Every structure is written in C-alpha cells, then in structure tokens.
C-alpha cells in the first residue's frame, strides 16, 4: 500500500513499524496458495507490523505469514479454529479448506471481544469480512483491494 495509506492509519493512532533493511518476504508456499494476492503481498512487504492503537486490529504482514512473529494468533488462526470444530467430519473439513484456499486473511481483529477478519477473495479480487462463530460465512466489504484500503484508512470498515 502506498505511504499515504499508512500515514492515514498513523493519524488514527495506529502503530506502524517498517523494516530498516531487507524484509523476510512472504513464504513461497503462501504465494503459491494465493497467487491472486500478489498486490497485497507486495504492499505489505516493507512493513514489519501495523497494529491499531488499542492492539485489537492488525494488518497481516510478511512476518505473520512466515510464522516469525510471536503473537497470540497465527495468520490462519480462524481457519485452524474452524478445522478444529469440524474435526471428524471430512466433508466439512474439505469445505473449510476450500473456502480458505480462496480467501487470504489480510486483517485480523479481536475488537469488541469478537474474532473477525477481512480477506482478499481469489475469485474476484473483492475483500470480504467475516467472524465467529462461523468464519466462512462472510460478506463483501469492498469490490477491490484499493477500494478496501481507502475505506479502511478512513475507518469505514
């Protein structure tokens, strides 16, 4: 995302940490699983972390996707929770994996005591949002990543 996106987040109290040197990059396995997410993965490549002032909302950055950050939640935590719920039901497990193969989480939240996310849809490039208890029940938030970034920077989503 461009500098003004992060500047606008900072003006709203977000803590943005950028890399001084080389970033670790996004794992190749993730790039293969989500080829439609290249724009997002490039935008966040130079950002170490981006967290709201209350630390309840955060953008997923390269270290998150690489599993290098020591946080309470992994980048695919909501997928893992769903799979745990579906354990023993192969059809449900397959449906969950299929959903997450087409939706890359880009923002995670625990605001208001509720687990939720925004994800980039590989089907059409839209951004969707969802949350507990059924993470895979989502709704369209924006028609494109750029539209989402504008709304998100202004606090509209």
How is the topology of this model organized?
Blueprint: H1 3-11, E1 15-18, H2 28-33, H3 38-43, E2 47-51, E3 57-59, H4 62-66, H5 77-86, H6 90-101, E4 103-109, E5 116-121, E6 127-131, E7 138-142, H7 145-153
Antiparallel strand pairs: 1-2, 2-3, 3-4, 4-5, 5-6, 6-7
Helix pairs in contact: 1-7, 5-6
Radius of gyration: 15 Å
What is the subunit organization of this protein?
Answer: single chain
Q: Tell me the helix content.
A: 25-40%
Low-confidence stretches: none
Q: Quick one: overall form?
A: globular
Mean pLDDT, to the nearest integer, reads 92
Order of helices and strands, N to C? HEHHEEHHHEEEEH
Q: Strand order, biggest sheet?
A: 1-2-3-4-5-6-7
| Helix count from the secondary structure assignment | 7
Distance between the termini: 17 Å
Give a brief description.
With 157 residues, the protein is an alpha+beta fold.
Task: Describe this protein's structure.
The chain has seven helices and seven strands; from the N terminus they run αβααββαααββββα. It has helices at residues 3-11, 28-33, 38-43, 62-66, 77-86, 90-101, 145-153; strands spanning 15-18, 47-51, 57-59, 103-109, 116-121, 127-131, 138-142. Strands 1-2-3-4-5-6-7 form a seven-stranded antiparallel sheet. Helix 1 (3-11) runs parallel beside helix 7 and helix 5 packs antiparallel against helix 6.
